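Backbone-to-sequence.
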C-alpha cells in the first residue's frame, strides 16, 4: 500500500465537488492537511486516481496533482497535532 499526495485547484466556482471529496475519502485512510490537499493510503496508482477523479466530477479545466510520497522525506510547519501524527505514522 502506498501513500499519495492529492492536490487540486477546482476551477468551476458554481459546481458541487462533493463527489470529488467523497471519492478521495473512499480510497483509504486519509488526512487533509490543507484545504485542497489530501494524504491517502491506497493501492491505486497516481494515474488511476487522476482518471477516477475526472470520473467523479473533476472538470477538464481543474488542475490535479497526485504524487506517491511513500517513505519520502517530508517536513511541515504549523499543522494540527492530529495531522502531524498522521504524517509521522503513515508515510
Amino acid at each position: 500500500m502506498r501513500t499519495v499526495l492529492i492536490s487540486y485547484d477546482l476551477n468551476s466556482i458554481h459546481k458541487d465537488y462533493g463527489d470529488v471529496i467523497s471519492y478521495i475519502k473512499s480510497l483509504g485512510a486519509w488526512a487533509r492537511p490543507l484545504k485542497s490537499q489530501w494524504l491517502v493510503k491506497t493501492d491505486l496508482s497516481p494515474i488511476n486516481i487522476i482518471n477516477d477523479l475526472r470520473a467523479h466530477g473533476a472538470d477538464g479545466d481543474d488542475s490535479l496533482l497526485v504524487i506517491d510520497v511513500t517513505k519520502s522525506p517530508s517536513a511541515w510547519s504549523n499543522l494540527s497535532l492530529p495531522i502531524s501524527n498522521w504524517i509521522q505514522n503513515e508515510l
